[in-house]
Give the backbone structure.
Amino acid sequence: DAGVIQSPRHEVTEMGQEVTLRCKPISGHNSLFWYRQTMMRGLELLIYFNNNVPIDDSGMPEDRFSAKMPNASFSTLKIQPSEPRDSAVYFCASSSSGETTDTQYFGPGTRLTVL
Amino acid sequence: DAKTTQPPSMDCAEGRAANLPCNHSTISGNEYVYWYRQIHSQGPQYIIHGLKNNETNEMASLIITEDRKSSTLILPHATLRDTAVYYCIAMDSSYKLIFGSGTRLLVRP
């Protein structure tokens, strides 16, 4: 299995622009997670999907952030408009929920720089 | 989720065992102890998890004290590639992994 795939790996944009990050979970996994990592705040969970349905978006910082999962093999995290403080590494992870313990497998991340 | 406490940094010599401690004195009965690591610029990587019993896999061993208030991750023969930040997390049957600051392990040649 190729593991969790994220694109792009690096994104540089200017303040005010729309940014879309993409994630393909591991085939057969039915849970998907978006995390953000910064030096100041560490790794934070932004949103969690189960069977393509958003279950908990309490970590989404504000209305500028939105996430979708139109099918079991694809998810997007969108920032509109982007701001310099959104600069971070964004990780996607997937797991096969329904097991007693849900091991999450992480993608390589997207490094976002907002100028 | 229970809060975990880890030393900010440790080092060990290549080929020796690395023993990484974690305190989770407020852990509840249904919370598992998970260990992940993050090698520079990569996504976190699952290592091992356990509830009460000691566990071993191809990567590491996990020793959990009888009262479950602390645990130790053991890398039996550390290599330079094991240099990473190691996170100890207490997680219940829900999905939330709450990452703390972790322990930065440096394996010296």
Observations:
- The mean pLDDT of chain B is 92.
